[in-house]
Amino acid sequence: MVKKPVTIGPLHFSKKGDAAAFLKAMLHKYDVGDKVSTGDAEVLLAALALHPNATAKMGLGITHFSVRSANFGSKCFWVNRVDGSSEKFSYKACIRG
Amino acid sequence: MSLNDLQGWLVAEGLREALDQLTLHTVVAELDNIVPPTDKAASFDWPRLLLAGSILAQSDQRTYQDAALRIATAAITLSDNEAIKDSGAVLLGKLSNFRAVSLATERGLLTADVEGRLGMALRIEAQHRQMDQSILVQSSGRWIQVNDFQQRFWSQADNYQWLSASAPTASGKTFLVLQWLIDQIRSTEMHVAVYLAPTRALVAEIEANLVSLLGARSGIEVSSLPIREKHDKAHEGGSRAIFVLTQERMHLLANAIGGAFKVDLLVVDEAHKIGDNQRGVILQDAIERASRSNRTLKLVFISPATQNPQELLADAPEGAHTASFESDVPTVLQNLIVAEQVPRKPKLWKLSARQHASLLPLGVVQLGSSPGSLKKRLAFIAAAAGERGGTLVYANRASDSEDIADLISQLIPEVPSDPELLELADLARKGVHPRYRLAPLVERGVAFHYGNMPSLIRSEVERLFRSGKIRFLVCTSTLIEGVNLSCRTIVLRGPRKGVGHPMEAHDFWNLAGRAGRWGDEFQGNIICIDPQDAQAWPDGVPERARFPIKRESDAVIEQGESLADYLDRRATTDLAEFEDPNQFEQVASYLLATFLRQGSIAQSSLAKRHNPAIIERLEASLANIAAQIAVGADIAARHPGVSALGMQRLLEAFRNYKGDVENLLPAAVDSQDSYDRFVTIMRRINQYLFPAFTPDGIIPLHALIVVQWLKGFSLSRMIERNIDYHRRNGRSFKLPVLIRSTMEMVEQIARFRAPKYLSAYVDVLNMHLAAIGREDLIDGDVDIGTQLEFGVSSRTLLSLIELGLSRVSAVALYEKIARDDLNKEDCIAWVRERDAQFEGMDIPAIIVREIRAKLLPEASAGAAASTS
Are residues B636 and B678 in the same domain? Predict the structure, then answer.
């Protein structure tokens, strides 16, 4: 399989697997309920832009990202919007594009 | 022959046969569906018996007093001769049992004005006795007639700074203590009194009793909430205050007030519970905290029949006048009856009364169906022998109590429906679940009762059992945990306390002692099934025994080395490595807090009670731990049962936390991330503070319960959610089990463990925030412990609870109120405006009544008068 490079904001990864590992490590740095730090949020915003449903996920605008629980005891990034709504998204979907 | 010898001879020989006959006739009259061995009419030599009775009445030994009481009761209930009945009444007077005389008069067994018919000498003696046995309530100028125990309590309570009094159930303890408490607060310089009751159920009961004894506009505030306002006003010269609190709530109150916390008078009810596993040491800590708040604190301990009430006085401050006394005087006859199956005839059960060492055959009860299971045995025998009602059945588990109640309901004749029972059924359906098993049962006059039921429902069950509308009540050990509920007959088979432990003699008698409602009945019956079955009764049906008082802390300290080893290991080893940290953690935390406060435990009063070598070893272990602790003594004192070492570890974890400090804070329950924050906080608590929420996999469920509870969800809504969750995830469930487990999680997690550990978490976090200059993040609103205790997080809900509503009612009402920031006055105004519309709001009638009684007392007093 041919390696596909991917760029998330300022970060370049020579293959998608590296990008996924990077985001996975970021996710697991946090406990559920945590707010994502400003630095990480910049990366996440860029990643979310690659998401197939990016427009819908971003909605009217984003206030911050957080890590919260998802199904089956796992955790996940969530986007919190200016209108108070909130939705989870998969970092893997962002990389798959 | 001395008087004592004579009394001994009378009971053992002289009256033996006559007393047996009296017992047979009096007991058989108490039981239903029994066929006595002979129906020969009895003839008694009453003058001889009554003379013997008056000799026995002079003794203070229970056996002799029992015999005298039996003779007096029999004379009144069995004889047709007025003179004999009158003599029975005089004998009751000699036993200071005036309530039984009133009862006999009410029942028409005695013609009114016994005294008028007595000769001059007897009349003077009777009047003299009545005056002797009366006490003057200073504040009201009223005289109350009392028994020996009550009189001793009244005279001694005034004279001593610390007093410990012990008497069996049904001695009129609670009534008298409340009278005395009110008298003290009215006629002395006491401003703040605290009545410690070790269960929420008892708190509710005592609070209601006090409010009704005080009446409207008494100028004395009664509260069961740990809110400082009433305490402060009382000390500033405003209305005096009586707080009725569990030990945990007293700590919450003291935490809310801080250094200004001061108690003038402390009453500790059910004081033997200082020996309880886990909560005993929290009670001890509460007593010591109140005592530290005021060196001249007046303190009264009350306990049921205990062997050593003086034990509780060991920690009195130096120079304090102390006294203890105990009474073992019977106020009602208690018949111990054993039920054994007739060989080869499962439907026939032979009943015998236990007399000293022998059994007195009473007759045979025939059951309608064959009792194939143990639950059926309890249900069938109770339904047959206790058919006239007032019958309590003891079940070992909540699930059994539901099953047994169901069986009984199928056996008893249908009665016309009663509006109060229908209302309770409605409350059970709306407050818990439409298919909660209690509802159809109470409609038939049968109920069950266990600890995790919502308190409003439980107290209604108790009230309707007292009033006789609920005729059969199947209960669990909650009842020994200090609910003042007595019965006419109690039926038991192999009672256990908690999971699996056979009941010890003193626990058994604390429970069995509820048979016999003084002032409502002359006798109480204790029916023990299968007394020969070694599995049911490993040591046989216990002989009457009194409770030994032993502090939980002393019991654990006596284990000496093991406790010191635990302390040493706790300092070095990860908590996850401990097999059962609960065994030592509470007492270890208590000792550590004491050490931090005093710099040593060698000078504390507990040191005097133990082997100096053990104290020395503990002192060394504690010193080693204390050297690692920087959180300070104050914070340790605020969280009894939570280890200062755990708090230190938590503080270090906060200091080492690499992320944004805001992530450490709990989120308000209306916030989307609240649930997840609680999940993470519970994990942190498990890791650093204490493994309180285990196993790890259960944390999400615990967090969910905590969030729903704080959001002010009603229990019925939480149960609905739990059912939905099971359905959505394809998990099978049994409805009764799911209902009970939801109730259990609310009580054990949301209202016990979560407040204990979360409030310590928040306190340590606030300390850290202050240290790093982030005071801006400290939330100064209601303490998380208090929020959890009451299951509220909005101002409006808290106001409703402060106004005295039960949570069930507060939540039902809050569902109709839009605003979340109403204070007490706003809430009253809201209710007043809509008073006329309540009936249309689909709120259960019992709740509407409570709302009106608590929020619109004047209006509801009028309404109650017009409907009664």
Answer: no
